[in-house]
């Protein structure tokens, strides 16, 4: 995978931060209004699984759930 580094100006970083905050607020509001507590719990579980995949600690699990 090819990776490149970029640098943001202070103004660019501020714009990016505001955009991320607005996006987070929008998503939190939509989740609160549209999802049941059970559905929100499932999303928390799925997010944890995705975080684990992204961290890639190299210790995979078997398809049956065993280590």
Structural class: mainly alpha
Compressed to H and E, one letter per element, the order equals HH
Mean pLDDT: 90
Helix content: 55-70%
Largest sheet: none
Shape: flat
Helix segment tally: 2
Low-confidence stretches: none
Walk me through what this model shows.
- The chain is mainly alpha-helical.
- Helix content is 66%, strand content 0%.
- It has 2 helices and no strands.
- The longest helix has 25 residues, at 10-34.
- The radius of gyration is 18 Å and the shape is flat.
- The two termini are 29 Å apart.
For this entry, give a set of tags.
single chain; 67 residues; mainly alpha; 2 helices; 66% helix
In brief:
The protein has 67 residues and is mainly α. 66% of the residues lie in helices and 0% in strands.
Write the layout of secondary structure elements.
Layout lengths: L9 H25 L2 H19 L12
